[in-house]
Amino acid sequence: MSKNNFEAVPLNNLDEWEDDLLRRYPDPEAIATAKATEEYRNYEEPARDTVKEFYRLNHTYQTYAFVQEKRNEFLQFNKKEMTIWDAFDFLNQLVDDSDPDTDLDQLQHLLQTSEAIRRDGHPDWMVLVGLMHDMGKVLCLFGEPQWAVVGDTFPVGCAYSDKIVFPEYFSANPDFNDPVYQTKYGVYEPNCGLRNVNMSWGHDEYVYQMMKDYLPEEGLYMLRYHSFYSWHREGAYDHLLDEHDRNMLKWVMLFNPYDLYSKSPEPPDWKKLRPYYEELVKKYLPSTIKF
Ligand SMILES: [Fe+2]
Ligand SMILES: [Fe+2]
């Protein structure tokens, strides 16, 4: 494998990043059970090393300029046009059989998330957010390296928070030595609002832009910032927030446990669920989506 190929796929599969999120933010309800402890033990070293290498690449290459380049490339949405159902089939090509632990495909994670939201009686648009939130991972199928699709997101163009996972890896980022980008506010104004802040590029921003005309603002925040852990879990970047962001934070926090803690080895019964989701998709989304 060439260096570039290796750098594109440091993880055995995309779930390794999410498994590591569970290690960092374990489910408070499952934490006391023996099963959780046993599973926890399985996360030891080799998997951790691939995750570390993944973050080293992510923190090294996600520069302000890289983000602009990817926004220009992907936010034109001129790659593909599909129905939602074809898009799920497309996304499911991401399933990786080199890892025996990955038994659920992408659609199943999305359905487990959306079904957990539905069971708790949240509004139907939030169920749809659960169903769509990782659709942006199709970026991998357009040839994007893993570090430009998944991983915690963070603002670019201003100083990095030490609340971001593996902050030491930012020293290899070219922006780290840029006198403007490394000031507290960087290219931004104090409390300018997250809508004016460029986040590191990945599946969150991409799916937000894809869905932005179709969902309520609360749902759009869930999509756009679900991987911004240093904000919604660690409280960093208050100096860039405005009142609107502070109001929306509770919605992002409401969504996060459904993403992290709804995983179960039991696959949802798609055949049974499909009629409900067909209606839901029809209610909010156009017949085809542009990628
Ligand atoms: Fe995600
Ligand atoms: Fe997810």
TrEMBL record:
It comes from the Bacteria. Keywords: Cytoplasm, Iron, Metal-binding, Oxidoreductase. Its cofactor is Fe cation. The keyword Metal-binding applies. GO terms for molecular function: inositol oxygenase activity; iron ion binding. It holds the Pfam family MIOX. InterPro entries: Inositol_oxygenase. GO terms for biological process: inositol catabolic process. One of its GO terms (cellular component) is cytoplasm. It is found in: Cytoplasm. PANTHER family: INOSITOL OXYGENASE (PTHR12588:SF0), MYOINOSITOL OXYGENASE (PTHR12588). This is Inositol oxygenase. It comes from Lacibacter luteus.
